[in-house]
Amino acid sequence: MNIKTLPQKVLLEGGKIYNPVSNKLEKGNLFIVNGKIASEDKSQTFDAQAIDCKGKIVTHGFCDIHVHFREPGREDKETLETGALAALAGGFTRVCVMPNTNPPLDTPESIRFIIEKGESVPVHIHPIGAITRQQAGKDITEMGLMKNEGAVAFSDDGLPVQDGSVMRRALEYGSMFDIPIINHAEDKCMREDGVMNEGPMSTRLGLSGNPTIAESSMVHRDLALGEMTGGRVHVPHVSTAQAADHIKEMKKTNNKVTAEVAPHHIYFNEAAIEHFDTNLKVAPPIRSEFDRKALIEAVKKGVFDCIATDHAPHTIEEKEASFDLAAFGMIGLESCFGAVNKVLVKENGLALSTLIQMLTINPRRIMGFESDLFQTGIQAEIVVLDPDEEWLFSKTNIHSRSKNSPFINETLIGRPVITISKNKIINNE
Ligand SMILES: [Zn+2]
Known about the structure:
Largest sheet: 9 strands, mixed
Number of strands: 19
Low-confidence stretches: none
Shape: globular
Radius of gyration: 21 Å
CATH class of the largest domain: Alpha Beta
Bound molecules: zinc ion
CATH topology of the largest domain: TIM Barrel
Helix content: 25-40%
């Protein structure tokens, strides 16, 4: 990967431009002047640096509303800077960072810290504030003040909001600001010490199981609370057929509900854990083939608004432990497009346009970001995709500070080849 300042005039030439707002795919060029989208004018473009995009798709930079960049506190795993490089390698130009840092992002000052620090890195970074102080699940944070500093949503992610009355108050409070509340839905009492999906496979491997109902029952509760309070429930990393069903039902009557699915839950099933690869240990867990297929069907039916990676870096030490003791989580930014394009588009017939919308306008709309990125004068956030390239994902493709990816040695299909963000251009070839 090489990263350079964008030349003053750039012409992305000969590719197909996909506009996720109008849902149109057309042959054409994209002209960028001083890092901003410009209208193509022959008297202007003649001295521009041309970039050949033949056979490629030029579209909006991806947006991931669920990443863990570990700053402050665990800079040995990831920083805003190294996380930004991972994002760019994956075609992402905008990310929302979760607040389970050390200390957690639970005050207006901590939100300001991320906003200020994020200004100097080459992707747009938005902090998500904690729902409760210290993420302890009890006292609601000062959401209004945190929103004023730049918090775009609230979540105790990593930890579930176990207490329903706390979730109720968070949704009531959040509804005053029309801001998404994101609960890591796993009932702690039912999850217990489960480290993988509960079923015949967990019994065979001798690992403690985490039942699907630990997720689906809490999702059901949150959706009901959303309906009751008028708050905005966004359901993260849905892993079960049942939770997807609950979301599908609630969406029929409540248009405030949104949901995301993660690449690993539609790419892997629990059989992959047979070799005890701790990079597959994640919360919620990799589920059965039944759930994986149901999630893919749910994507095709429009149940999920967006793809989000839940990029969760961990050190080698934390992942080299036994499966029982290893940390939960995997990185996911660099492998995202190749994985979801392979499973959803190539293997299951989803329209590529729908997938691109799930990576661009849909997540931006959930968070209230500008979603019409081809307007003249907008700072360019662009990705150039080769949708058909088959490639072997390897450690050299990882730019995160941590390498905990189960996608290493997987053949992926489709690749972000160029990313343009904040006046920088990144070439992945
Ligand atoms: Zn989570």
